[in-house]
Write a structure and sequence with these properties.
With 120 residues, the chain is mostly helical. Helix content is 82%, strand content 0%. The protein has one domain. Helix 1 packs antiparallel against helix 2 (76-96). The longest helix has 64 residues, at 10-73. The chain is rod-shaped.
Length: 120
């Protein structure tokens, strides 16, 4: 038998240190995951709220422009038709450029929280 106490055994110390290291690494990955998810959900929430506010503002501006155009040309209905046609043209343009405007940008937004590597 050995004269050294059990806690002085180098293999026991190595085993304890390895377990502590593994637990710390697991905690680090959990914290990184929580940070990434919280950043992601924060971004989603911000984009959603901003889109809703911008949509309401755009509707009100569209109504005001429809009335203004209608007053200028003498027909409110025609003013609203012109604004409707303008919104349809904008919607078609958004559809045509959707990949460049939305898909690529969303991929960048969703990848950034998970693969940031601590650079801020």
């Amino acid at each position: 038998m050995s004269d050294k106490p059990e806690h002085q055994n180098p293999f026991n110390n190595l085993s304890v240190s390895a377990k502590e290291y593994l637990n710390l690494k697991i905690d680090e990955y959990k914290l990184r995951g929580v940070e990434g998810l919280s950043t992601l959900f924060n971004t989603i929430l911000f984009v959603t709220v901003t889109a809703i506010v911008a949509g309401v503002a755009l509707q009100l501006l569209g109504l005001a422009a429809g009335y203004a155009i209608g007053e200028m040309i003498g027909s409110t209905a025609l003013g609203f038709c012109i604004m409707g046609a303008l919104f349809i043209v904008v919607a078609i343009m958004l559809y045509i450029f959707r990949k460049r405007l939305f898909i690529n940008q969303l991929i960048k937004i969703f990848i950034k929280p998970f693969f940031d590597n601590g650079e801020k």
